[in-house]
Amino acid sequence: MKPDLFEAPDYYNLDDLLTEEHKLVRSAARDWVKRDISPIIEEAAQKAEFPKEIIKGLAEIGAFGPYIPEEYGGAGLDQISYGLIMQEIERGDSGVRSTASVQSSLVMYPIFKFGTEAQRKTYLPKLASGEFMGCFGLTEPDHGSNPGGMVTNFKDKGDHYLLNGAKMWISNAPFADIAVVWAKDESGRIHGLIVERGMEGFSTPTTHNKWSLRASATGELIFDNVKVPKENLLPNKSGLGAPLMCLDSARFGIAWGAIGAAMDCYDTALRYAKEREQFGKPIGSFQLQQKKLAEMITEITKAQLLAWRLGSLRNEGKATSAQISMAKRNNVEMALKIAREARQILGGMGITGEYSIMRHMMNLESVVTYEGTHDIHLLITGMDVTGLNAFK
Ligand code: TGC
Ligand code: FAD
Fold first, then answer.
1. pTM
2. Among 184, 197, 352, 382, which residue carries the largest CB count within 10 Å?
3. 181 ligand 1 Cβ < 6 A
């Protein structure tokens, strides 16, 4: 793969809206991606292997629990810092950002928000340091967009719960030490349970043959009469709203992360368009290529503004779930379109692993599907503006 020459576009001087802390956090993440991700990521994706050696670095840049309070091992940062970290990591690879998103928003967040003080103290510091890795089991083979229909369930057996069922498409599952699993009790109410690797009847088979997020490990979670200690139930919220609150936090991170992938594609295509000559001049001098690049920077700038404003709203505790859906949907689609256009600017070279664009493009096909598909987020916006529910 070519050396990482990335320069971040900032067409509307958005840096003026950031604090010194935001810039420091971003620069630590950016430097780490250049040093530790860019040189290894193409090979990891080609081999379809999650590069476990990056876990320590992710912890060091604060990617595990950026907004979790420091007393639990988190970085204690605000939402814009969290977003900037996700942006920089996904600039390197969406699969690496997935690992961080899951650990932070789908494992640490529910333990912090819905767990007991003992659960927080047991798990959060180890998750923040990367000593423990976690995964989040919501999706099932027959329930993806409609998680409320889940069939995974647990029964009260007096001194423990007995868990049965299966989850599918679970990021980090093959190597996770713990899983936050959503399952129904005997009355059909959804609860979160912490399931630990090694519990009898719990297995995590790997999902193979992915053409997307190849550097991220995906797997199933199988529960065959797993005895879960009662103290592993997250007691402070139940119902579908609990996992959906976690998704709000992860979707917010994705809205920022997708900008990183888009910026990388744009920056690569811009450099290539200025260097590559055809018909005796740089291809960047042709109007058709300029149209592509001008539209890319326009869309990136709009997405940056959307993400920044959403971050400010979240810092004030005012962002709605529907606003988060809009940003996730818009920014991922923006990134996917830019990846496709950028790939064309590179001609044949665009399909090779010499450049990051094709990898981003393939990764973004997962990003546009997980954490709520493109359609689902449109319907959430539709419901918000009309007051009419298309899901029921
Ligand atoms: P609905 O009846 O609308 O709602 C059920 C209850 O939840 C409440 N609620 C929310 N609460 C908090 N945050 C939100 N965003 C919420 N949205 C809804 C709602 O008020 C209600 O509460 P209550 O008290 O009345 O019970 O639910 P529904 O069954 O009609 O479904 C709505 C729908 C379709 C929007 C939702 O289920 C959905 O978002 N589906 C998409 C599923 C999804 O996003 N799955 C993601 C799985 S995890 C993943 O992909 C990780 S990838 C990670 C990576 O690698 O980065
Ligand atoms: P389906 O729900 O079957 O949808 C198929 C199609 O139908 C989509 O186009 C969808 O938009 C459309 N559709 C569905 N319902 C409607 C409707 N009401 N109106 C209009 N169109 C509709 N899940 C986890 O729990 N944890 C994870 O860590 C995780 N990681 C993932 C990693 C990867 C690489 C992938 C690909 C997925 C991951 N997922 C994870 C699962 C992901 O969240 C689901 O794939 C996603 O929610 C969609 O569910 P589905 O694949 O079952 O598609």
1. 0.98
2. 184
3. no
